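Backbone description:
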Amino acid sequence: MRYTPSQPWEMRLLMAAREALDTKHLFEHVQADSSVLKDAYKQCDEITYEHSRTFYMASSLLPIEKRQGARALYAFCRITDDIVDDPHADLSARQTNLDTWRGEIMADCPPDGSLVCLAWADTRAKFNIPNGIATQLIDGCERDIAQTRYQTFADLAEYSYGVASTVGLMAMHIVGFAGEEALPYAVRLGVALQLTNILRDVAEDWRNGRVYLPQDELAEYGLSEADIDNGIVTDNWRAFMQFQIERARRLYDESLPGIASLDSDGRFAIAAAAELYRAILKDIEDHDYDVFSRRAHIDTSGKLMRLPGIWWRSRTASLP
């Protein structure tokens, strides 16, 4: 099983992933009191549960050490994202706060009192997660401080790599993977997940002064930012969203077979995270592409109903 990237944007992202992988080195295991380390992972659990029930549910399917690592990863990403999105800080303050956080979260010895940094340092050492990938994630989130528009899908894919594919590449180390043949699948899955986020959060992003939808494709479908501001579902908007959803589904289709490259005890969790997120696209369709007056989601019962089928497909390598 091997997928060969063919798009120029994908080749660039795969090169970045390989460069980051080469930064791997052995870390010193964190020296910390077991009760303090337990509290650190507990805080990561709480952050994950509060902000992403889907990720919390999916990570619950992992063995305990990998579950702890996945939630430490989520907490690291969540705090990074919250810093660059802080509505109470101006751009200069956000940059200063991110620079401070970068120093703390990437330190070999986490600062006293920072439980998330402690849990992440322990996770990074335990699973030998390359520093370069974590740095790429922080760099990707940093774009949100100043950049609010993306001209082409290639530009958006590069941003999506920074904020989402990097998460998948780090999760891959926590779960365990066969070799570098897993990289292009992780890159594509990250872009698919982020594109799903973007399509779901059009209205929220607009309120925050951001438009992640490719500018050239909006124009191609006869749309402008005035249409987003108006928040009215038109035939042009439906056609545009259909195109974006079809692209996202192709990305999922081409990435999910890579789950077979993961260690067997982690495949169900990653498949669940991916397929439950993918289901958001169907919810957008079912509500006539209205992402202005409601936020697409899958409720808990909908998630639970999907899990047996996801489990079977993850075991039989028959994912879409």
